[in-house]
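It would be a great kindness if you could assist me with a short task in structural biology. Thank you for your consideration; the sequence and its tokens are set out here.
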Amino acid sequence: MISINNLTKKFGKTLAVDHVSLQIPPGEIFGFIGPNGAGKTTTIRMMAGLLYPSEGTVHICGIDMIQNPVQAKQRIGLVPDRPYLYEKLTGMEFLRFMGDMYQVNSADFTQKARDMLTQFSLLDRANELIEAYSHGMKQRLIMCAALIHDPDVIIVDEPMVGLDPRGIKMVRELFRLLAGDGRTVFMSTHTLKLAQEICDRIGIIHQGKLIATGTLSELEDQASMSGSDLESIFFQLTEPV
């Protein structure tokens, strides 16, 4: 579902992402973790077609992001780390705007939008201006917008920021539901406990390099730390000796 090969990004003399390769199949929740400045967001922006790579390729559902960016982006639902909302629109108007961008069938839109807003406990605020929403409500609206076109791949950068415990539970259950439906969830997060709880596999990026990938058990073997939690493994692999 997601195929990344030798993905590289240079900013002048700085090598931000260094020949990262990943294969993520349908139905998997993949966690992407690393220290600040490790290259997580830069990788995500290249995956989503927002940033052109210096080298390497990204394929989404077999579609080359560089050669066919529009077709590839239509298969993605993106929740960026700093989403932009048109705050003078209502929640429903914003979803209509996003639905039109993704060419959601007009006959299906209203029911889809209502279902999404209901799922994220926003239906009763659908006709209010976004500027009146709390931070957590805006985060939930962005999640609705990312899913309005039924994408095969969901790419999320720090999904739980600003959510209350109920919102966090809601998103965790949603990710599991999406994966169970055969969709791929790629999630970058600093919340290691969350990654350990819900991700099928985890990749650790450090100084632009993908230094470890696998299940928790496989990461334990790579770190030579049997019976450890993800936090211990993370610090073992990323802290200087």
